[in-house]
Every structure is written in structure tokens, then in C-alpha cells.
Amino acid sequence: xxxxxxxxxxxxxxxxxxxxxxxxxxVVCAAVDAGHSNIEIDVDDVGVLDSSAISALLAILRKARxxxxxxxxxxxxxxxxxxxxxxxxxxxxxxxxxxxxxCSTQWHRPLAPRPGxxx
Length: 119
Fold this sequence. Notes:
Blueprint: E1 4-7, H1 18-33, E2 38-42, H2 51-66, E3 70-75, H3 78-87, E4 94-97
Parallel strand pairs: 1-2, 2-3, 3-4
Helix pairs in contact: 1-2
């Protein structure tokens, strides 16, 4: 089955309303509950991954792990990749290069759990 693809809205980069973040989280969590086993969230269109957007992504990841669903973040912009690295989220999420990779460094990890890492 093809991964379900979700796009983190650009509006989330600038003081997204709690309602918008909750709606995004609800939609993706509903997909997890519906049985999707592979979800990719494209974060390239987000200007900045702020703490509210990161919290929404972590809530989705927790739900996904409960259902044994893999979640990947698709990113190619250096600023987004740097944020993921600095916050340590590159160690929590699977990060794959977006199809329109504009970055010289391509990160790719398969959609599989890491050995020895706690879920």
C-alpha cells in the first residue's frame, strides 16, 4: 500500500491557531485509526517548524506508535533539516528527502523502526 501523504500547511509556520493544529492532528490521527500503516508528512512548505507544529507532529507520532504505524517526515529544505537536527527530531522521526530535493545532502532512512530505540 502506498504511504498516506499529508502536507503540513504553510500557515502553520506563522502563529498557527490551536484549532488549525488540532484539525491537522485529528485528520492524520483519523488516518492512523483507519488503518493506514505508512504515513508521510511533507514539511517543506512550512516556513519555520515552531514549537506548536512540533508538538502536533509528536502527538501524531505517539498515536502512530500505538497503532504500529510508521511516520516519515519529507523534507529537503536546509532550514527544515537543520531544525530537525538541532531539536533532535531527526532521531525521533524517519526523515526522507522530498521528491523535489533542492538540498545537496539527502537524508534517507527506510520506514522501519530503529533497533534498540524505545517506541
